[in-house]
Write a structure and sequence with these properties.
With 289 residues, the protein is mainly beta. The chain has helices at residues 50-54, 120-123, 262-265, and strands spanning 2-8, 12-18, 23-28, 34-40, 43-44, 66-67, 78-81, 84-87, 100-105, 110-117, 130-139, 142-151, 157-159, 162-163, 166-168, 175-178, 183-185, 192-194, 205-210, 217-222, 227-233, 239-245, 250-256, 270-272, 277-288. The chain has an eight-stranded antiparallel beta sheet, with no helix packed on it. β1 and β2 form a beta hairpin. It is globular, with a radius of gyration of 18 Å.
């Protein structure tokens, strides 16, 4: 029922399949450990800008990028720590670096385990030794991502982590959002607005953060495609971000462990003790409506 194969496109790509349920996932370890595609019963769940993906000078727009050790951007890209300043670009470096394939399994799911370890490049912008281990599991209509964050340094390691899934969506006005919050803040974080489930998709850009979520699930129904996409996330994730651009066929509903600039402000940041680990869980389920 479960199957894993490899193909060589622009990058070496691992294909995870649940053939009985017509579910297919594509993972590119060397390009930020990213999931680039998920097709379920012939429908694309994720959007991917393939031309940007081919250009190593551009950030990926599509799939499910990994955010670490920050979510969002920092003012002037500066992280201040221990009397020094470090340059950390938007969303951190995990989405750009090559990850290693640690193991594969087809016993109870189509499963692949990827790891990322600190090196000279990461230490120059983020002075902590770490190891990340992410387990991708494809089972029917569910994509499960189990995460382990390990601080290998001898000092407390502050970080935030998250995901930036691009959900394929053509008619945004056909969406019904179910986000467990009654308010959101703008990108600058200086204004708060009430939320009742409606957004104005005629804006050039929507970039908002729900920092007071009240449940570990969120979802949206796409009536044009007759599907419901449900997100479930562990308590590590404190914030949901919604982002989209006018005229683009995607929406992003992103679980973050801390809001923008948390690494400097300390707001909801995770402070991991030396030589300890913490875990995260993120699941996406797609069903018919």
């Amino acid at each position: 029922m479960f199957h894993i194969s490899i193909k060589q496109d622009d990058y070496l790509t691992y294909i995870l399949e649940d053939r009985e349920n017509n579910s297919r996932l594509e993972v590119v370890p060397e390009k930020g450990g990213i999931i680039t595609a998920w097709k379920l019963n012939g429908q694309d769940i994720f959007y991917l800008d393939k031309e940007r993906f081919k250009n190593p000078q551009l950030s990926v727009r599509g799939g499910n990028p990994i955010l670490f050790p920050i979510c969002g951007n920092l003012p002037d890209d500066i992280f201040a720590y221990g009397g020094k300043e470090y340059q950390l670009k938007q969303h951190g470096f995990a989405r750009d670096l090559p990850w290693e394939v640690a193991s594969q399994s087809t016993d109870e799911a189509a499963e692949i385990v990827l790891t990322l370890t600190s090196n000279e490049e990461t230490l120059s912008v983020y002075p902590f030794e770490f190891e990340l281990s992410f387990t991708y599991q494809l089972v029917g209509n569910r994509l499960i991502i189990k995460q382990q964050y390990h601080n290998k340094s001898n000092q407390v390691m502050p970080f935030s982590a998250g995901f930036h899934p691009y959900f394929w969506c053509q008619d945004k006005n056909s969406l019904d959002l179910d986000i467990p919050a009654s308010e959101y803040t703008n990108k600058a974080g200086d204004k708060t607005f009430p939320f009742s489930g409606e957004l104005d998709y005629n804006q050039d850009e929507i970039d908002i953060a729900f920092k007071k979520i009240t449940a570990d699930t969120a979802s949206f129904v796409n009536h044009t495609r007759n599907i419901k996409v449900s997100l479930k996330y562990s308590e590590l994730f404190s914030t949901l971000v919604f982002w989209t651009l006018k005229g683009k066929n995607y929406i992003c509903l992103e679980p973050w462990s801390a809001p923008r600039n948390g690494l400097n402000t300390g707001e909801k940041i995770t402070n991991l003790e030396p030589n300890t680990s913490c875990e995260g869980y993120f699941e996406i389920k797609v069903s018919n409506v």
